[in-house]
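Notes from hallway chat w/ T.B., transcribed later so I don't forget. T.B. wanted the structure written out for a chain they're using in a teaching module, and asked if we could keep both sequence and structure tokens in one place. Agreed to drop them here.
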Amino acid sequence: MSKLTKTFKEFSKTFWISNTMELFERWAWYGLFMVLALYLTKSTDEGALGFSQEQKGSIMGTVAAILYLLPIITGSLADKFGYKRTLILAYLILASGYYMMGTFTSYGAVYFAFLYVGIGASLFKPVISATITKTTNEGNSSIGFGIYYMMVNIGAFLGPLFSSKLRDAYGWKIVFIMSASAIVVNLLMLLLFYKEPERQKTNESIVQSITSAFKNIYIALKDFKLTLFLIIMVGFWTILNQLFFTLPNFIDQWVDTQSLRNSIASVSPGFAEKIGNNEGGINPEMLLNLDAFFIIMFQILISSFVMRYKAINAILGGTIVIGIGLCTTMATGNPIFIILGLFIFSIGEMSASPKFTEYIGRIAPREKTALYMGTSYLPLAAGNKLAGFFSGTVYQNLSDKTELLKMEMEKRSIDMPAISENFTQNDFYRTSAEKLEMSMPELNAYLWQTYQPYKIWYIFAVITVFSVVALFLYNKFVLKEQKSN
């Protein structure tokens, strides 16, 4: 029996059930989140909501930020009431929340429903990772967490894949039903197979547990070095999250995916048919899903390469590569460069993201490692909030096709009806093209050349450079006395 086979047999049923539940939860989350920017902003006559980019950025940025802040509280609640009870509550919230999101149409109602989903996700997140920790030991934890992260990425890959094909075939609502159904599967597995792992019970009240959690965060943040590092890393997460916040809209509005599909069809008509949409192109989420695919294929290889470098060097290099990849996807509007940019982006993500928590552990005093690790979600929360701002207000003013076309029509003093239930975004595009005596491709090309929406990549390049320089100076001067770093 090989050592790997022996290690696999050491894992309990609860370990495997927890990993399977992680896969389905990530399927549900990314199956929705990868297409959410499109659902919120695309035209209502396509079954989407027709919100502005600013509204989209507010919804996605705020909820994602809360999702990473709440585990400070929900982790304490899980320790108090038990993992299984917490997961039952999480699944009930998630399943009903996903369904409500597909039912509601007003801005306020959708905002509420997604906040509700965020609460459910924040209950789930700390419990599963804690279960993996408690069902592994020092000898098999490395392989155990490797399996866990593999499940995360498989779920993140399958979710958008199914979302893309289902929304083409049955409309937007099926995406929310899919996510809710994946959570129902988790609830059944939980009730039938999940065994509560042993945990250290506490006599603290809920208020005491939450107060203690915030007190620990406060104690850790009193360390200037830690706080400065977390602030710098906000830029990293702001850039990384543009994959979900900005790129779906950018590809949908400015990239001619039909030419890419035609090129693929010339080589493999069957494959082109499988990845294509009803309009003859390729849905943005199908392209963006390449990031998860590349991670599944190359994470072990990249991790093996990166492990020989110090954590700070891996983060520095990874941040540079992520920035280059993101800017490459936006610089030309060419779908080939989208694929190239996503490949570069994924290499940076694989290099830097796993090293983030490792580096926090390295700068922490040995007796305060767990304390410092509790702060790791803070820059993720802030980065998501900022990502929402840049993909919302900034994108709307610089790159949003609807806003740029409105500016053009106003500049030409051409009166146009306001976008409403009776005059949709698509109506606005078609009518504008008619009045300008252009075809839709000609209109897109004109707006691209006149307003240069691709220049938003300049902003992301500046954030990347700032983050890299700040990290370099931080390591060189703030941590210069710590030779181990």
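Follow-up for T.B.: The chain is about 80% helix and 0% strand. Might be a good example for the class.
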